[in-house]
């Protein structure tokens, strides 16, 4: 505990935004070969998605996208505003970006993780309401699931299956760490799902992103279709890291096989934006959950 307090104190005395610190919100990292590719919500977020590259997760180059630093540019694919929360997957020799724009979910493709990602038809996936924060998960049996957030009276995480079934997943519960503001519109968003130890693990963020208590929770299930059982406390939070607004990221394996979580935090104790990007190692716990290793915290840096 003393060690954790010392780490937290050192973080609180650091300048909140370093001149070279990455400033992508809702980040994701795609790893291929010896290179990591980072994408996320830019500031402003109405032009598309930039991409940065790294070999060590600390030092990053870019923006390195095929079109003036952008991997996806407005006009080449669906969307006119609010390019948020991308995910990159590879099928065969094609790369696919699943992303949010205009509060809908769309897919674009490219021959390279640097882009350009395009969607010639410029169409979003069909939906009966506004949807954001897509995450495609393919289970070991080959079944595919599209986890996403429906904006329907609240931000709630749901799932669509490859057979067309629609499933509720999790919502923010009043009176818990997930709703410290007692909000009229509760928020549960930013889903990421992995298979680990014979179980399925959902990582999600709760509270509005502008709330200092924005944090990352964890739930576990025996099937990608649930039911999901939430851990009582968040895995990543300001109480653990001494930074406000810690949330909405993605999990990726590093070159050593560690599970890393890339996420964003507020610019400072007084400002939300521009949100800074961080990376931390996730550690499985004896009870089947996950915790973070505070000694592993990385502030990714880009050239001046």
- The portion of residues forming beta strands comes to 35-45%
The strands making up the biggest β-sheet line up spatially as 1-2-4-5
Report helical residue fraction: under 10%
Q: How large, in whole angstroms, is the Cα Rg?
A: 18 Å
Which class best fits the helix and strand makeup? mainly beta
Give the mean pLDDT: 93
Please give the oligomerization state of what you see: single chain
Q: Give me the number of helical elements.
A: 2
Unreliable parts: 1-19
How many strands, which pairing sense, and closed or not: the largest β-sheet? 4 strands, antiparallel
Please outline what is shown here:
Helix content is about 5%, strand content about 45%.
Task: Give an overview in words.
The protein has 304 residues and is mainly beta. The protein has 2 helices and 21 strands. It has helices spanning 2-12, 238-241, and strands at 25-32, 35-41, 48-50, 52-54, 60-61, 70-73, 84-91, 94-101, 104-110, 131-138, 144-151, 155-161, 166-170, 188-196, 199-206, 215-221, 229-230, 247-253, 259-265, 276-284, 290-298. The chain has a 4-stranded antiparallel sheet, with no helix packed on it. The protein has a 4-stranded antiparallel sheet with strand order 10-11-12-13, with no helix packed on it. It has a 4-stranded antiparallel sheet with strand order 14-15-16-17, with no helix packed on it. The longest helix is centred in the N-terminal third of the chain and has 11 residues, at 2-12. It starts with a helix and ends in a 6-residue tail after the last strand. The model is unreliable at 1-19 (pLDDT under 50).
């Amino acid at each position: 505990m003393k060690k954790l307090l010392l780490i937290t104190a050192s973080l609180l005395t650091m300048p909140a935004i370093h001149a070279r610190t990455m400033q992508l919100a809702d980040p994701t990292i795609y790893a291929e070969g010896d290179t990591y590719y980072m994408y996320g919500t830019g500031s402003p977020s109405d032009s598309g998605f930039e991409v940065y590259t790294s070999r060590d997760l600390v030092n990053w180059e870019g923006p390195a996208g095929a079109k003036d630093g952008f991997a996806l540019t407005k006009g080449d694919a669906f969307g006119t505003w609010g390019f948020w929360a991308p995910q990159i997957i590879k099928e065969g020799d094609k790369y696919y970006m699943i992303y949010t724009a205009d509060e809908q979910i769309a897919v674009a493709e490219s021959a390279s993780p640097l882009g350009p990602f395009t969607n010639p038809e410029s169409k979003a996936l069909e939906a009966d309401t506004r949807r954001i924060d897509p995450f495609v998960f393919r289970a070991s049996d080959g079944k595919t699931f599209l986890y996403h957030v429906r904006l329907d009276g609240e931000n709630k995480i749901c799932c669509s299956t490859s057979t067309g079934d629609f499933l509720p997943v999790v919502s923010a519960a009043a009176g818990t760490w997930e709703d410290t503001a007692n909000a009229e519109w509760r928020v549960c968003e930013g889903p990421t799902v992995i298979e680990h130890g014979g179980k399925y693990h959902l990582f999600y963020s709760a509270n509005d992103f502008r709330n200092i208590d924005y944090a990352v929770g964890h739930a576990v299930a025996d099937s990608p279709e649930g039911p999901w059982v939430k851990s009582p406390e968040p895995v990543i939070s300001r109480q653990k890291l001494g930074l406000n607004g810690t949330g909405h990221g993605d999990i990726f394996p590093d070159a050593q096989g560690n599970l890393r979580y890339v996420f964003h935090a507020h610019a400072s104790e007084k400002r939300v934006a521009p949100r800074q990007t961080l990376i931390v190692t996730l550690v499985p716990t004896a009870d089947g959950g996950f915790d973070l290793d505070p000694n592993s915290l990385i502030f990714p840096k880009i050239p001046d």
